[in-house]
């Protein structure tokens, strides 16, 4: 008689609109499941400690660092990577703004920056304040300071921050 394996779980993820079934070790991160098991390479492994944001994706519409999320915790979730933001062959407005503002250099952090920016713009649109929001009773104005604060979990080794802030500001007006 075969003993059940209590260290593995079967799960289903919808990644960039495609349903994917897989079996994972319960300790596997979502980042490793995406990259190593599903060959989804848009989220990058940077620090593997949740400090750089290179692995950021949208999980059911909210931005998360996949290196700190267990894959089993995402069972049944919709995951959108930067690659999945494209619609009908057109770049997402945030990605288009990154292109127009030259908001990347080496590009390693760009997928995480774009996913984080999309999530951040949705948070701001819903009225969620940040640490630098002047009046938490009002919807925050997306000033450069607001954008910098809200994107502070995403690092860029090339220091393209002025262009990243400009790109997000441009995307916010679209």
From TrEMBL:
> What Pfam families does its record include?
Fer2, Fer2_2
Name the PROSITE patterns for this protein: 2FE2S_FER_1, 2FE2S_FER_2
* Molecular-function GO terms, alphabetical: 2 iron, 2 sulfur cluster binding; metal ion binding; oxidoreductase activity, acting on the aldehyde or oxo group of donors
Q: What is the lineage of its organism?
A: Bacteria, Bacillati, Actinomycetota, Actinomycetes, Mycobacteriales
SUPFAM superfamilies from the UniProt entry: 2Fe-2S ferredoxin-like, CO dehydrogenase ISP C-domain like
Q: Does the keyword Iron apply?
A: yes
From which domain of life does this come?
Bacteria
Question: Which key words tag this protein in UniProt?
Answer: 2Fe-2S, Iron, Iron-sulfur, Metal-binding, Oxidoreductase
- Which named protein is this? 2Fe-2S iron-sulfur cluster binding domain-containing protein
Q: Specify the pathway.
A: Alkaloid degradation; nicotine degradation
């Amino acid at each position: 008689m075969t003993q059940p394996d209590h260290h593995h779980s079967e799960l289903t993820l919808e990644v960039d609109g495609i349903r994917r079934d897989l079996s994972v070790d319960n300790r596997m991160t979502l980042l490793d499941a995406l990259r190593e098991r599903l060959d989804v390479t848009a989220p990058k492994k940077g620090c593997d400690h949740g400090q750089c944001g290179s692995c950021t994706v949208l999980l059911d519409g909210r931005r998360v660092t996949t290196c700190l999320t267990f894959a089993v915790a995402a069972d049944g979730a919709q995951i959108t990577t930067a690659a999945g933001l494209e619609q009908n062959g057109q770049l997402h407005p945030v990605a288009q703004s990154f292109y127009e503002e030259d908001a990347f250099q080496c590009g390693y952090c760009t997928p995480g920056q774009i996913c984080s920016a999309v999530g951040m713009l949705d948070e701001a649109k819903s009225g969620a304040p940040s640490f630098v929001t002047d009046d938490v009773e009002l919807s925050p104005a997306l000033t450069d300071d607001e954008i910098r604060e809200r994107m502070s979990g995403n690092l860029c080794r090339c220091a393209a921050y002025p262009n990243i802030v400009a790109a997000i500001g441009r995307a916010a007006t679209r």
